[in-house]
Write a structure and sequence with these properties.
The protein is 54% helix and 8% strand. With 261 residues, the protein is α/β, with parallel strands linked by helices. The chain folds into 2 domains: 41 residues; 204 residues, 3-Layer(aba) Sandwich (Rossmann fold). Keywords: Membrane, Transmembrane, Transmembrane helix. This is SGNH hydrolase-type esterase domain-containing protein.
């Protein structure tokens, strides 16, 4: 009788173990399916709003990967009444360099400008801009258009004084190395309220831009305000920060007109 009972217990234990293994395997399979689905979603640029709570650098990387994965073509490639042919803009900026973060890098990613006219890096902020300064100096352009600040809003904890101090150091470094190069400063683009609600430090754009304008007046260099260009319909990506492709031809035209190129 004891032997029968022992055998029964062993059988029940074996069944229980097998059931647990099967259940665990099904859970892993389900998780893998969900993970694959999540990765597929992240590849699409229309999921950026869900990623906005992450660091800016992660959002920027997602945008860049989406550009490559989707094979998205620049909207400025076609001639219209409002924009020039793409080749004309590349020619106008052939002796110039645009420096900045992911917003600037899109000029190269979308092929609005040649790589020799763009010195930009996703997630870059002014405390870490030295390699980009050296790269710009090596290119020895006639004009440099600087466009920093989006990432510094968060990195510098909304401190416009520290921001403009670092910006001025970068400008003076370029001036010392390239005394004949003209330097232009782009203002930070407006950020939509939904992005500010997620990261309140983004609400310091106006204070940063005011500090930039004062710096430009002090140094005698032009400040370029592009904020009106962001008032176009459907101009923002879903993260509320980065502009869509049709912003870039107008931005290039605004910079070119200020520099007379």
């Amino acid at each position: 009788m004891k032997q029968v009972l022992a055998n029964g217990i062993r059988i029940m234990s074996t069944v229980a173990v097998v059931a647990c293994v099967v259940w665990f395997g099904l859970m892993i399979l389900s998780y893998q399916q969900e993970l694959r689905a999540g990765i597929t979603d992240m590849a699409g640029i229309h999921k950026l709003d869900e990623l906005a709570a992450r660091d800016v650098a992660v959002v920027e990387s997602t945008i860049q990967n989406s550009r490559v994965a989707s094979g998205q073509q620049p909207e400025a490639a076609e001639t219209s009444a409002e924009t020039e042919p793409l080749g004309d803009m590349k020619t106008r900026f052939a002796s110039s360099v645009v420096m900045g973060d992911s917003i600037t890098k899109a000029l190269e990613d979308y092929e609005f400008l040649d790589s020799t006219s763009v010195v930009a890096k996703n997630g870059i902020n002014l405390p870490h801009v030295q390699p980009e300064l050296e790269q710009a100096v090596a290119l020895n352009p006639k004009n440099i258009f600087m466009s920093y600040g989006m990432n510094d809003l968060e990195y510098l904890w909304g401190n416009p004084q520290k921001f403009v101090e670092l910006y001025e150091n970068a400008v003076r470094t370029l001036q010392q190395s390239l005394p004949d190069t003209k330097i232009y400063i782009n203002g930070i683009l407006p950020i939509q309220q939904k992005a500010i609600d997620k990261k309140p430090l983004y609400g310091n754009v106006d204070a940063y831009n005011q500090a930039l304008m004062e710096m430009c007046t002090r140094l005698g260099i032009p400040f370029i305000d592009n904020s009106e260009l962001m008032q176009q319909e459907d101009i923002y990506q879903e993260d509320g920060i980065h502009p869509k492709p049709h912003y870039y031809p107008k931005w290039l035209e605004n910079m070119a007109s200020k520099a007379g190129i």
